[in-house]
Design goal:
alpha+beta, D-Maltodextrin-Binding Protein, domain 2, 6-stranded mixed beta sheet, 11 strands, Sugar ABC transporter substrate-binding protein, Bact_solute-bd_prot1
Length: about 425
């Protein structure tokens, strides 16, 4: 009971039913997950023997809590919201339940309908260990009306040089030129920043696991990002994450935002946005490497310690199949359909019409993202906006704290990267020892 109270105090914990077996679900409190919680009473009506208990957390809290709980194996959660970063690693450790046998026994689930790049990213030794709730890449969102008024055009894909020039031209006392994440966290600031580093020719490690965070390419990329957000970005940039930037653009306070393709559910929803129909969408900006967009999915898995795997899978399959997508569209609005998980989503006529401005570029970006070759020069790791090693949660968070401090003006980019290099070199040394 104390654990539930603590979780409720820092985020939200709620049980929908009171009748039978309880499935406890740890989720991130993003808008699509809030929609799922709203619709979950329909699942319970169809499955009266199952009660659902939701524990909702912010992104950084969720990553820390879910990782610690799953690693301990105490059976606290039956369903966990994870990603393509955790899934293959945790499957290798034996922390997750193999979902492929459950998928094969579920009529109509159709795993082949999952977008191939996501299916591969969530697999270990050929089996799926989590399934996508929604998938995303990254793209540039911009105010079409402001660009037209200023006579600004973008290449396809745009370059970061063009983005900086547009931000400078559009920045004014009433509207900021761009919004970019600056909030510390490997899944916050580093998500967009790492794609900038990649496309500028930088990398975290060379092929021999020598840290590269103070290389000329990384320095140029990080200095560019920090200067861009400090000169033309939103107030409080060093504490801004996805949610804060979504609000900035939706309320008409910024001219551009580079971030997740999933943001459209907020920007194109009249209930939450003042700029519906005014946003243009362009591929992730590039400098040297094209394409440069990230690949990420919030997916659902079952910890190996769960004592309710059958019930947990029943809920997961409900929340990730084609019918759920239609339910969201029909009951909540087609702009709120979780994007980027299934190919068939992009064949639903109502969704195709509603998503005409952003649907094709979202699918193209996700399909084109290549976790195996994220950088200009070869690297010994996979992952675009992260390095797919266990140490990256800690390493990435510490590096992000240094760069966020530079965004806040508390230190120089040079000092931030010199410290980041020391952190990365300590991690790289352990991998050099393993391969020597």
């Amino acid at each position: 009971m104390a654990l539930s109270v603590a979780l409720t105090g820092c985020a939200g914990a709620g049980s929908i039913g009171t009748s039978g077996r309880t499935v406890t679900i740890a989720m991130v409190s993003n808008s699509q997950m809030q929609d799922a919680q709203q619709l979950a009473s329909q699942f319970e009506a169809e499955n009266p023997e199952i009660d659902l208990k939701f524990v909702t957390l912010s992104e950084n809290q969720a990553r820390a809590k879910i990782t610690a709980s799953t690693a301990m194996g105490g059976g606290e959660f039956d369903v966990v919201m994870i990603s393509n970063y955790e899934t293959p690693q945790w499957a290798e450790y034996g922390w997750l339940t193999n979902l492929s046998p459950y998928i094969e026994q579920t009529d109509g689930y159709d795993a082949d309908d999952i977008i191939p790049s996501l299916r591969e990213a969530l697999s270990y030794e050929g089996d799926l260990y989590s399934v996508p709730f929604y998938g995303e890449s990254s793209f540039l969102m911009y105010r079409k009306d402001l660009f037209e008024q200023a006579g600004i055009t973008l290449s396809d894909p745009p370059t970061w040089t063009e983005v900086a020039e547009a931000a400078a031209q559009l920045d004014s006392p009433d509207i900021n030129g761009i919004c970019l994440r600056g909030k510390p966290g490997w899944g916050e600031l580093l998500a967009p920043l790492d794609t900038v580093i990649n496309t500028f020719g930088g990398r975290w490690f060379d092929e021999n696991w020598n840290a590269q965070l103070n290389s000329p390419e990384v320095r140029e990329a990080v200095q560019f990002y920090v200067d861009l957000v400090r000169e033309y970005g939103q107030p409080g940039a060093a504490t801004s994450g996805f949610s804060e930037c979504a609000t900035q653009l939706a309320q008409g306070r910024v001219a551009m935002w580079y971030d997740s393709t999933s943001a459209v559910s907020t920007l194109e929803d009249p209930a939450s946005s003042n700029v519906v129909g005014k946003i243009g969408y362009a591929a992730a900006p590039v400098q040297e490497k094209d394409p440069s967009g990230w690949l990420y999915t919030w997916s659902l898995g079952i910890p190996a310690s769960s004592e309710h795997t059958e019930d947990a899978w029943k809920f997961i399959s409900w929340m990730t199949d084609q019918q759920y997508l239609r339910t969201v569209g029909e009951q909540l609005g087609w702009e709120r359909v979780p994007p980027g998980s299934r190919l068939s989503t992009y064949e639903i006529p109502e969704y195709v019409e509603a998503a005409a401005a952003y649907g094709p570029i979202t699918l193209e970006s996700i399909e084109g993202a290549d976790q195996q070759n994220p950088t200009v020069d070869p690297v010994p790791y996979t992952g675009i906006q992260f390095v797919a090693i266990p140490e990256f949660q800690d390493l990435g968070t510490r590096v992000s704290q240094q760069i966020s401090a530079a965004i806040a003006g508390r230190q120089s980019v040079e000092d931030a990267l010199d410290q980041a290099q020391k952190y990365a070199e300590a991690v790289g040394a352990t991998y050099r020892e393993k391969t020597s």
